[in-house]
Each structure stands twice: as structure tokens, then as C-alpha cells.
């Protein structure tokens, strides 16, 4: 199965619940943006006419990239002349909607292209589990909500859609092996692409020190909704069994593993690593407004946009199966109703990691 393509973003401008501050509410983004800004202040910069290259790995529509990349550009501009060229490479899988990305870059009021005339953008449609930019070219790398998606589904998870909650030890072990190998590959290629002294900031799903994997009420509601539909003409038990969301949550130990025992891997060293709970903004709204239906609706809409496409790969006809729209409608309604019936906070443990590529003198 090809890797999944999903979009996690706060309410879009124009939607009923949009607030200007909503953009930075995207889970975990403010913390990671602050780290990216610090990184932009610390990296060695080329002298002109060499451009400064920033890479955005797993950009999707680019909507959630505008603030981090813009913050880094602002920090760099405190150290350069205004005409020193900055090149931003937005990368994603070949099937990503790159037209949407180019529209974001051209039209979004937060787009760096609208603010800084010496910035330029390019797009790369290749998996970040390979080398996709030239060696020693990238000064700053950014990736949010992307490296949790595995390169491939390692095996079936028979009892759950989310391996973290499976009781199948064999499946858990296969996912853990795939996750370890994907993380090593991701780092190895970024280690090549970064310039000495360059920094990479990663925001990704994590398991916290208490063993909290997160998303439990949501994935529980999805699993229950799928089981309720078995026996209807919409889905078979066999298809439900094949359905999985190929996301992994990594512990601090998993994230540090490639760096053992000498604190370096492919020229990279971990400069900062924190695991934190990003906070459930739909829950915060529910606590203010006590609107359980809205709480259910918001999480169900998120699940439809972000998680259902991965599940539908398990249908006999894959994501193009003619039942997809009706199934998505039914699942969304059912997930919304069950979350509205018993609203519970969704925990979102995340890790923010800053890595630096060592300089030859280090
Ligand atoms: C949830 S979106 C995150 C988008 C954005 N970075 C954000 O923070 O909202 C995950 C993105 O990662 C991309 N992605 C997943 N696996 C990838 C891979 N192997 N190579 C490149 N992009 C990948 C997906 O296609 C998707 O666009």
C-alpha cells in the first residue's frame, strides 16, 4: 500500500469556527515553531550569492507550514541582508495535492512569498524515506505530523485499527521494527542533506512517560463504528480486519535509539527532545460551551479527513471503492454520535526533537 496522505490542520479561514488564533492551535505547533525559530538563530549561514535552503518534509497543502517557515525566515532575516536569497523546498509524496500547496504559497496571507521578496519556493514529490535533496545543501529542516506515517504496512493488525492498542504481540513487534527502520532511514538521509551546523526540527506522535499512546476515545469510536457496520452491505468482516491506520507513536527511547551509544548518527546529534501533551482544542471548546454534539462533530470530521483514507485502503476496491462515500458518511455520523454521547478529552502526546549536524571541528 502506498503511504497515506492526510491533512491535519485547524479550521480554515471562512469556516464558522475559525478564529485568527486557531492557526497556531494546531496540535503542538506553537512549541515546535519556537524551537524552529531558535534553530534559525543558531545555524551557520552561507554568504551570498549562495542561497539559504530550508526544507519542509511532508508539507501536504502547506497550510500548516506557513507559520513555521515564516518564523524561521524572520529569524534568518535578523542576520542577513534582505536580498540574500532563501529557497524553501516543500516535499511530500507524489500523490500529494501539490496544486493546493502552490495555491497556499500564492494566496495565503501568511505565506512567506507575500512577505519576503528574496524567498523562493520549490516542491519535491518523493518520499522522505529516500534522499531527496542534494547532500550538504539544507540549512534548516522542518517536519510536523509526518514521520509517524510508516513507509509501508508491515503486517495485519487483526484486533484494532491502531496498532498501539492491539493485543497482538507479533503485530506490535512488526510495527516496532518498521518504525525503527523508517526513523533510521529518515534520519540518515536528512543527515546527508543537512549542511554542517544545520538543524532539523521534528514534531511527531509520541508515547509519554506514563505509557499514554493518545487518541483512545477517537480510535475506540472508529473501531466500534466499523464493527457495527459489519453485516450491512457496506463492509465485510474481512475488510474490517484488513483496515489499519499505519501510524506509530514513538517513545523518547525509540527516538534516541539510532544515536546510541555515542550520541551521534549519520553526523546528527540530538540537541533537544521533549515529549508533551498538545492539548485537545475541541475538548477545551466543549468545556467552555458544553456543546457535546459539536465536540463529536469536530473529532469525527477530523477523523474523516485524516484517518478514514488510510482505513479505506483495506476495502476490496481500495480507496477508489464505490462504497467509500457512503461508508465515510456512516462512519463519520457514528463516530460523532458516540463521542457526543460520552465526551472525553483526547490525549495527544507529541515529541519535538531538534537535531544538529555536527561540524567537522566538533
Ligand atoms: C498530517 S500531514 C502533515 C502536514 C503538515 N506538515 C502539518 O503539520 O499539518 C502528513 C503529510 O506527510 C506526508 N507523508 C507521509 N509519508 C510521507 C513520506 N514517506 N514522504 C513524504 N511525505 C510523507 C503525507 O502525504 C501528508 O501530506
TrEMBL record:
Coiled-coil stretches: none
Annotated TM spans: none
The entry's keywords: Magnesium, Metal-binding, Methyltransferase, Transferase
Statement: the UniProt record of this protein carries the keyword Lipid biosynthesis: no
Gene Ontology terms for molecular function: methyltransferase activity
Xref: Gene3D superfamilies: Methyltransferase, alpha-helical capping domain, Vaccinia Virus protein VP39
A Gene Ontology BP annotation from the UniProt entry: methylation
Pfam family for this entry, one: Methyltransf_7
Xref: PANTHER family: S-ADENOSYL-L-METHIONINE:CARBOXYL METHYLTRANSFERASE FAMILY PROTEIN (PTHR31009)
Protein name (record): Class I SAM-dependent methyltransferase
Organism of derivation: Mycolicibacillus parakoreensis
